[in-house]
Each structure stands twice: as C-alpha cells, then as structure tokens.
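Our consortium's second objective concerns turning raw sequence data into structural hypotheses that experimental partners can test. To show how far this objective has progressed, the report includes one record in full. It was chosen at random from the queue rather than selected for favorable results. The single chain below, 310 residues long, was entered without modification.
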Amino acid sequence: MPYSNSHLLIIATLLVVSCFLLPCSATAPRKLALVQPEPLILEYHNGPLLKGNLFVNLIWYGKFTPIQRSIIIDFIQSLSTSSARTLQPSVSSWWQTTERYRGGPSTLTLGKQFFDQTYSLGKTLTPAQILALASKLPHRNSINVVLTSSDVTPYEFCMSSCGAHGSGLAGKHKKIKFAYAWVGNPEKQCPGQCAWPFHQPIYGPQTPPLVAPNNDVGVDGMIMNLATVLAGAVTNPFDNGYFQGPADGGLEAVSACTGIFGSGSYPGYPGKLLIDRTTGASYNAYGAHGRKYLVPAMWDPKTSACKTLV
C-alpha cells in the first residue's frame, strides 16, 4: 500500500452533534435532547515522538515565486519564536500545544533548503520519488518537507490527500529512521478541497470563500496543510505515537480536528476568526515577521478536545 507508513490529510466534514425527539405520552410535552458526542481520544501507542531541537529542511520542487517562498519560510520561523515577542494569538502559541504531548517541547528551526526548478523527476510524483526528494537533505534531528508547485501532481494529491507525512530509512545500512512530509500547492488542481475556506468547497454547504491573509489561495492553503503534517510528524512520526484508528491512516493531532479553525465551527463554517480591517482577510494567528495566517485547531491531550486560538 503506498504511504503505508504515512498519514494522509483526508478532507472530510463530520457532524459531531445530533439531536433526536424523545418519545412522549399524550400528556407530556415533547422534549428535545442532545446526543452528547463521544470524547475525542488520540491514544498513545508507546512509540517515540520527535522532541527537542529539530530542523525543518525544505525541498522546493517546481516553480515558486520569492513571495510564495517567504510566506512559507516565515510560517516555519514563527512556530518556535518566543510568544512574548509576537502579537497574540500567534503561530508559536498554536504550536505550543504540541508540548502537551509526552516528552516536552518540539522546537523547530528552519534548516537547509534544496531547489529543483527543472522538474527533474517530472510533474507526476510517486511515493518513492517523493521519498527520494526528501532524502536529498540531512535527516538527523530533522523533518524533511517536500513542497510541490501548483503544476505538480504527487500521488493521491487532490484525490484523498492534500499532503502527507511518513518515515524513511537512511544511513549506510538503511537502519536509521527519519521523518519526512510533502505538501502540494492546490491552487490550480483542487482549491475547493485543499484550500477551503479560501475557496468554494467542492462538496457540502456552499458558503462564500474567505479572503486569504497572504492574498494567495494556493500558498495559504499550503500553510494549513503544512501545519497539519508538521504536527502529525512530531506527535506520530513512526506510526506508533498519538493517533486514533488504523496506524496507516488514523486521525492525528490536527487531522482529528478537520474543518475547525475557530470557536463555534460547524460543517461549512470554519468558526469565529479575526478579520483584517484593511484587506478583509480572515486569520487566527500572527507570525513572527508580521504576517497573518490561518492555522487549524489541534487536539489537546490535556482536555481531549480540539483547541482553537480564537
């Protein structure tokens, strides 16, 4: 099975609260009762997590503009910046939820970068080719992330996945496990699937799209999916960390909270967000360098609930 050791970002909308009319007699008024949803529990499966100081190495595959690269780089640099130095709510305060998982903080730093603007492997990538690209940079204490441009189609992109994370083997004898991930730019291929709520959804409630905070539907969509795979990579890097369901495709730290970006969310509505008064853009987190981002809710192991910033 391709990506047998990775977790796909499957876009799905779940109705978590249902109500039913209780049976009643002719003399008793009807009562409306809410069926309480089962608590969301991501079980810990006793495996190692990625903790301590980690590098995020980037492999840029295809053509990205300098502005697009800076949006993504600023986001990564914002993940572990001191919250005291950043406007709140911040990307770093969102990432601090990963500290609540076993082992303490995962401090991410931008590492090395590799550029392949000539599409050396073509514009359709297999899982093996993505792993080969991820292997081009150092792997020790790192997460190697392959970022593909809007004209590249990785395996299962736009079908069941907007990105994924997994693990590979490195070293002379291929015995050292390392974590990697990939995220595609959905602007031209599936913005309704992988860039919602900045584009009209391809299914479900047809609410008007929101304005993207960095004025780039594709890259702002990539940020949401990059946030998802990075959180999954540190809390379940080798399929034996935190997850619910099957090991090769279960719910993880952020994928367990799909479609939730702010308080009061429901299918078709991302929740309460902040609005830029000048541009009308929607966001919920400030970056370290003044940019605004929309980050998804993350499951909090202390409360067993999806945690939002606003």
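The partners drew two points from this record. The radius of gyration is 20 Å. Residues 10-33 have pLDDT under 50 and may be disordered. Both points have been shared with the crystallography group to help prioritize constructs.
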